[in-house]
Design brief:
It comes from Paracoccus marcusii. This protein has 533 residues and is α/β, with parallel strands linked by helices. The chain is built from 22 helices and 11 strands.
Length: 533
């Protein structure tokens, strides 16, 4: 075995040769690459994975060229020790037998940051570093904890003391809906407002306060919703909303849209507001990162999403995270056109059963399971029952409504499915994953023979997420049906690039290829014209 090199990740990055010489490269990308390798147990990463963290904004050819130059820079800095860094056409590595990393044996105490001062300026690297710091703070024995980690996040719903009568009731109903939407995604409990208000010197009873005030003067209605972190009065969400002219403040579409937006924006800021020393807040941070990865529908990032969601479950133990993992596995199978073997399906089934055992009254867990049962197992009966149960637990859960819409397509109730999907598409607002809802809506529109509307929805999904394969499958047949063969061929070329082993023959003739909605609508015959056109 050769002499040992030491790599410090706690504090500024530092690479030292066995004689103590500092051989750290000066470039930030070079330092970032070393950090990516050193943090991994095997000290090894694939080239594509590294390129996606350091040059995520560049085309593959440009990213590969930048990686080659950075490897040269590192070897130059290592000098006579250049053989410490290895690479081939698939991967890059550090010799694990000759490297020790301080992070392996000494978790950060919170006194110094991991990779202190390193500014790589790539959002994917920043996500990776944020996750690494969060994970170390969560597991470190001496990491400071803001509050006892074993308790749930506490929510309280209030209205202004000046509100009385119907306005006060409307405010409480809307605030309660926001609380339900937050509560189904993070371990939390709603508590009654403090009466009387605690003294200023006493710690607040709740973590998050959801205040909704309503005014209906002169026949018009307006809602002011503000969500605040109680300890420091940091505003996590603030919004003034009016329904459409003549609309009702308690109309489902108005309340669902506002509650969905407010809950998501609050959850995004929750880990920093409450503090990563609280297990539930740390788990929310892992979940937030996982969903950001999932909504890209990039194969490598979807795999990362599952790992992050697993971290969320290990941190908190909320069954909703297992339901998300099952959903991610279903999405991976459909998006990559994989053939799940019995063992895979058994694992997913086990995840869903455990999720229900741990979170029997969680509407989000039941809604995600409903979609997974319907789309992966073709179990419509269970899917409909689970989605209906989810809506009884939380009438504002959009995943449950969409699950009923998807099941309705298969059952032939397309008008009702279209109504449900249209509601979700409108209410989801600026959700980072709204292209998924556009895909669902396109599928429902095809089943209801609304082909122009389906085309618009699928195009919007692709525009938002170019690596999203599923809407491109729909667009091939939709464009061909309108005689736009050039646009159809563009989608075919994209599928050939994004989907390993894709062929037009399988698309048209393989009953296992995931375009059942197109088959039922008799649209594949138009795509077949591409072969002769």
């Amino acid at each position: 075995m050769g002499a040992t090199f030491t790599i410090s990740l706690i504090g500024p990055l530092c690479v030292r040769a066995p004689d103590g010489t500092d051989i750290t490269p000066r470039g930030t990308k070079a330092q970032g690459l070393i950090a990516l390798l050193a943090e991994h147990d095997a000290r090894r990463r694939s080239r594509r994975w590294i390129e996606a963290r350091l040059w995520s904004d560049r085309a593959p050819a440009q990213a590969s060229g930048s990686l080659r130059q950075t490897l040269i820079e590192i070897r130059r800095a290592f000098g006579d020790h250049h053989d410490l860094l290895g690479s081939d056409r698939l991967a890059v590595w550090l010799d694990p037998a000759r490297v020790t990393v301080d992070l392996d044996d000494a978790p950060t105490s919170g006194q110094r940051d991991i990779l202190e001062g390193l500014d790589v300026r790539d959002p994917e690297f920043e996500d990776w570093l944020r996750l690494l710091r969060q994970r170390q703070q969560t597991v470190a024995p001496s990491a400071p904890r803001a509050v006892a980690p074993e308790r749930e996040i506490r929510l309280t719903c209030v209205t202004s003391h000046t509100l009385v009568g119907p306005d006060a009731l409307i405010g409480r109903i809307i605030a309660d809906q926001v609380g339900r939407n937050i509560g189904e995604r993070v371990s939390s409990q709603q508590i009654a407002p403090s009466q009387p208000i605690p003294d200023a010197d006493e710690p607040p009873v709740a973590d998050i306060e959801i205040q909704c005030d309503v005014s209906r003067e002169a026949g018009s209605g307006v809602v002011f919703l503000q969500i605040t972190h109680c300890s420091d009065r940091r505003v996590l969400f603030s919004g003034l909303r009016r329904p459409e002219p003549g609309g009702d403040l308690l109309a489902e579409d108005f309340v669902s849209t506002l509650a969905h937006e407010a809950a998501l924006r609050t959850l995004t800021q929750l880990p920093q507001a409450v503090g990563l020393g609280v297990a539930q807040a740390a788990a929310t941070g892992f979940c937030n990162l996982a969903l950001r990865k999932l909504w890209t529908f990039d194969a490598a990032k979807v795999d990362e999403a599952e790992m992050l969601m697993r971290k969320a479950f290990e941190t908190d133990g909320n069954g909703v995270y297992l339901a998300w993992i099952a959903f991610i596995r279903m999405a991976r199978v459909i998006e990559r056109n994989q053939r799940p073997d019995p063992g895979f399906l058994e694992d997913v089934d086990g995840l869903m059963r455990q999720a229900l055992e741990l979170a029997p009254h969680n509407a989000m867990a039941r809604a995600l399971i409903a979609l997974t049962r319907t789309l992966l197992f073709n179990d419509l009966e269970t899917g409909v029952r689970m989605a209906s149960d989810a809506l009884r637990l939380n009438s504002g859960n959009l995943f449950a409504r969409q699950a009923l819409a998807v099941a309705g397509v298969t059952q032939g109730d397309t008008p009702q499915a279209h109504q449900l999907s249209s509601f979700c598409r409108m209410a989801v607002g600026a959700d980072q994953g709204w292209h998924l809802w556009e895909l669902y809506h396109a599928v429902v529109c095809i089943a209801d023979h609304r082909f122009d509307e389906a085309t618009i929805a699928a195009q919007r999904a692709v525009a938002q997420c170019p690596d999203f394969v599923a809407p491109r499958r729909l667009l091939v047949a939709l464009h061909a049906a309108r005689g736009n063969f050039s646009a159809a061929e563009t989608q075919l070329a994209a599928l050939a690039r994004l989907e390993p082993g894709f062929s037009l023959d399988a698309y048209l003739r393989d009953d296992r290829y995931p375009v059942d909605t197109l088959r039922r609508a008799n649209l594949l015959r138009h795509a077949a014209s591409i072969l002769t056109g």
